[in-house]
Write a structure and sequence with these properties.
428 residues; alpha+beta; Rossmann fold; Dna Ligase, domain 1; five-stranded parallel β-sheet; 15 helices; 31% helix; globular; binds adenosine monophosphate; binds glycine
């Protein structure tokens, strides 16, 4: 099977590694990729958000399957162009990707499908925003309605800050969604969908804030681990029954069946499971941790989904170990990351047992060195018998790598390793 992966980041590097391990995948390409991906497979410098360019490349390569990583090409209609040309694609159509691209649309679907989520109001003026903030009370949650790479959300107890974020979205011509605050631990569950059937991957937890102790601004994600030893038994089944299947049925009913990853971002609150958000793709950096444990060949799974041939009963096989991924980010991320620093120690880190290094924002300079080329630069994934061991592996890898201004969190999966996450019984 010839596979083309679309995207530039750490999630795509993880997809490439997992696809390369599938014995049925004979030919693997990526566009545009990054410095790490280009060491593993051939990369192609096209505009990945241009449906015609992606289609032309898939034709030229004779791709049997195209796997689209990020949200922007999906929202731009890359999947639609491939479907129209008869090329199997793993990723939703532009219409189905609205589940991520518009938070207001996602709320409409959840209401119709009776999926539990935060109460929300849409606001288009400062007055409406102020009224919604006062209706829900602090802490305030204000979300830009459109795609914002995980950075369009402000959660704060400062009313002035909440209102200022809403106003900045209005000034940019946008709409905001204001929500009730959801307490409780967060879980990311990736559900592989073929339009009708659905198969869940192992749950993961992501760390959104830039600094230790969940301080500082939101980022795209600073680390992740999987599986989650503190989850109540039956959690995944409950999410499938109450969230994934009702959503799939509603999307089918609307004439926009969903194929690809339905990423369920969930909070386990004192009042039960609530959807925080849907995404229409794999999460980054959760994918780096989740796929490190997947034993089932990934290419076959994604091809079955793309062709509408997924069987709900499909049993996935997982390594018994735990995976922890730690993101190393550029100086000044998430505000305005500073690019260009030379990275050292990647090979040393990869030589450590149970450590792998996945590239995100990296490129090569003229001398062939790997340099910083984005906000999130690398994800260092460690495998281990338990969370402590996996953390030790990941952080041993991180310690081997350096560049000027590199930053990472030191507390990824720490609370879970110490047994400090609890979910009240019977509330989910
Ligand atoms: P989103 O872009 O909707 O995923 O939001 C990004 C992050 O903001 C989430 O992962 C949560 O940590 C936080 N967040 C979003 N919505 C809520 C909410 N209603 N209550 C509490 N935290 C939230
Ligand atoms: N890790 C969060 C995301 O991919 O949106």
């Amino acid at each position: 099977m010839k596979v083309l992966v679309i995207g530039p980041g750490g999630r795509e590097h993880a997809l490439i590694r997992a696809l390369a391990a599938d014995p049925y995948v004979t030919d693997l390409h990526c566009a545009p990729g990054n410095a790490g991906i280009s060491r593993d497979v051939s990369t192609h410098q096209i505009d990945a958000q241009d449906p015609a360019a992606v289609l032309a490349l898939a034709r030229e390569l004779g791709s049997d399957l195209v796997v689209v990583g990020p949200e922007a090409p999906l929202a731009a209609g890359v999947a639609d162009a491939l479907i129209e040309a008869g090329i199997p694609v793993f990723g939703p159509t532009k219409a189905a990707a609205q589940l991520e691209a518009s938070k207001a649309f996602a709320k409409t679907v959840m209401a119709a499908a009776e999926v539990p989520t935060a109460m929300a109001r849409v606001a288009t003026t400062t007055q409406e925003a102020a009224e919604a903030l006062d209706a829900f009370g602090a802490p305030y949650v204000v979300k830009d309605d459109g795609l914002a790479a995980g950075k369009g959300v402000v959660v704060t107890s400062d009313r002035a800050e909440a209102l200022a974020h809403a106003e900045s979205c209005f000034e940019a011509g946008g709409t905001v969604v204001i929500e009730e605050f959801l307490d409780g631990p967060e879980v990311s569950l990736f559900v592989i969908c073929d339009g009708t059937h659905a198969v869940p991957l192992a749950p993961a937890q992501d760390f959104k804030r830039i600094f230790d102790g969940d301080q500082g601004p939101n980022t795209g994600g600073m680390g992740a681990y999987s599986p989650l030893p503190w989850l109540p038994a039956g959690f995944v089944d409950e999410v499938m029954e109450r969230v994934a299947y009702p959503t799939l049925r509603d999307m089918e009913h609307r004439g926009t069946p969903f194929t690809g990853v339905l990423y369920c971002g969930l909070a386990i609150t004192t009042r039960g499971i609530r959807v925080i958000e849907f995404n229409a793709r794999f999460g980054d950096p959760e994918t780096q941790a989740v796929l490190a444990r997947l034993k089932t060949p990934l290419g076959g799974l994604l091809m079955a989904a793309a062709k509408g041939e997924l069987d709900d009963a499909e049993l996935l096989h997982w390594r018994p170990e735990t995976a922890v991924g730690v993101v190393m980010a550029a100086e000044n991320y998430p505000e305005s990351p500073i690019k260009g620093a030379t990275i050292t120690g990647i090979d040393t880190a990869e030589a450590i047992e149970n450590v792998s290094v996945l590239h995100a924002g990296t490129t090569n300079n003229a001398a062939g060195e790997v340099i910083v080329d984005g906000g999130r630069v690398l994800a260092v994934v460690g495998l281990g018998a338990d969370l402590h061991a996996a953390r030790n592996s990941a952080y041993a890898g991180v310690a081997a790598i350096s560049w000027d201004g590199a930053q990472h969190r030191t507390d990824i999966a720490l609370k879970a390793a110490n047994g400090q996450i609890s979910v009240s019984e019977g509330t989910h």
